Amino acid sequence: DSGVTQTPKHLITATGQRVTLRCSPRSGDLSVYWYQQSLDQGLQFLIQYYNGEERAKGNILERFSAQQFPDLHSELNLSSLELGDSALYFCASSSPGAETQYFGPGTRLLVL
Amino acid sequence: GQSLEQPSEVTAVEGAIVQINCTYQTSGFYGLSWYQQHDGGAPTFLSYNGLDGLEETGRFSSFLSRSDSYGYLLLQELQMKDSASYFCAAPTGGFKTIFGAGTRLFVKA
Fold this sequence. Notes:
The structure holds two protein chains of two kinds. By secondary structure, chain A is mainly β. Chain A is built from no helices and eleven strands. In chain A, strands 2, 4, 5, 6, 9, 10 and 11 form a seven-stranded mixed beta sheet that branches. In chain A, strands 1-3-8-7 form a four-stranded antiparallel beta sheet, with no helix packed on it. In chain A, strand 5 and strand 6 form a beta hairpin. The relative contact order of chain A is 0.34. Chain B is built from no helices and eleven strands. In chain B, the strands form two sheets. In chain B, strands 2, 4, 5, 9, 10 and 11 form a six-stranded mixed beta sheet that branches. In chain B, strands 1-3-8-7-6 form a five-stranded antiparallel beta sheet, with no helix packed on it. The interface between A and B is medium-sized, with 24 and 22 residues.
């Protein structure tokens, strides 16, 4: 158990819909990262937050947005969903100055 | 562009030693991490090299050579449970982290 929690574990929805994925980092970690992993693919970096502020942006679609709240939990919003958005979405957290990222169990999103 | 290249698959026998290579091309490089991911699971951290040389953690070791833009993960005394995907990862300029596409390790009895 990494200490990072993600909800929900599974999500099935239809094209055009909007969903929100939630992540709670490990206690004391200020950084939260979001990744997308499609079937048999590597991890694609989406976005990073540090202590409530956006720190880095990867290949995140305009239909996707995220935020980190004062209690440091983070949410990833995916809208106008397409079939190709079906993937595993991982959240990770790290402590200040550390390289190690601790990953949550992921949310498996299926868009039908 | 920025990338990390690693072999897609490696097969080895139980009890053997296997090396998974990673060559990188990134800006703002300052270290190489390795993660293990079992099917359906989350990536878990294995090792980090911030300096050139070898880092050893039990049966796993990792090596970095900045002059060659190259690193590797060495797994010794392979066990069936080591069958998984292994990813190298590096921070890039601007706090982004990029991951290699992953190497799928198959351990045979």
